[in-house]
């Protein structure tokens, strides 16, 4: 793990911590992922840094080997879990693809806020988190991935993202490392 710094305008992006996604079986307990994400949310809000809450409300059209993607999810699926304590200052991004940037206003929002770095947490590591991290990296943003505040539907996919993909997209660290660095750089 090689977390070095947090830029002056760093945003926290929380991926798919919503009722429908958290009801799926995952490699790690989602209650722990939510708890760590909430600790980061509280810290980012306290320091007046941008917070982005992302939810998935559908899937991209097209065929896959695993079957056709779902167009829309059932009622309540996209509802963010109450533990996130959504605030009026939080920016909500509703996506219909794996990544939070495609066909949303996320890039424009981050640019307007002067954001140069994003910190990513959520579910699923190899899907929503990785897709969003790839796009952020392609935009030239500094990317930080909080490895203990994310999980996947499959343990091997989670490990692959953490060990093979994320070190090429940005820096990785734990929730506590991000919190400590946030306190050191903001006091």
UniProtKB/TrEMBL annotation:
Pfam families: Isochorismatase. Residues 10-177 form the Isochorismatase-like domain. Coiled coil: none annotated. The keyword Cell membrane does not apply. InterPro entries: Isochorismatase-like_dom, Isochorismatase-like_hydrls, Isochorismatase-like_sf. Keywords: Hydrolase. It is an enzyme of class 3 (hydrolase). It comes from the Bacteria. The keyword Hydrolase applies. GO terms for molecular function: hydrolase activity. Its EC number is 3.-.-.-. PANTHER family: ISOCHORISMATASE FAMILY PROTEIN YECD (PTHR43540:SF7), PEROXYUREIDOACRYLATE/UREIDOACRYLATE AMIDOHYDROLASE-RELATED (PTHR43540). This is Uncharacterized isochorismatase family protein YwoC. It comes from Paraburkholderia ribeironis. The gene is ywoC.
């Amino acid at each position: 793990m090689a977390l070095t710094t947090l830029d002056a305008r760093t945003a926290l992006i929380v991926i798919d911590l919503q009722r429908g996604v958290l009801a799926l079986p995952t490699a790690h307990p989602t209650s722990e992922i939510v708890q760590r994400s909430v600790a980061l949310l509280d810290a980012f809000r306290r320091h007046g840094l941008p917070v982005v809450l992302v939810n998935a409300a559908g899937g991209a059209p097209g065929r896959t080997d695993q079957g056709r993607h779902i167009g829309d999810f059932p009622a309540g699926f996209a509802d963010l879990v109450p533990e996130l304590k959504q605030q009026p200052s939080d920016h909500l991004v509703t996506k219909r693809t794996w990544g939070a940037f495609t066909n949303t206003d996320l890039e424009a929002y981050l640019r307007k806020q002067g954001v140069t770095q994003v910190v990513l947490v959520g579910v699923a590591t190899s899907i929503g988190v990785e897709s969003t991290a790839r796009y952020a990296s392609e935009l030239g943003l500094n990317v930080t991935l909080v490895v203990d505040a994310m999980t996947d539907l499959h343990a091997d996919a989670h490990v692959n993202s953490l060990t093979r993909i994320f070190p090429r997209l940005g820096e990785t660290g734990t929730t506590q490392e991000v919190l400590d660095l946030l306190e050191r750089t903001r006091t």
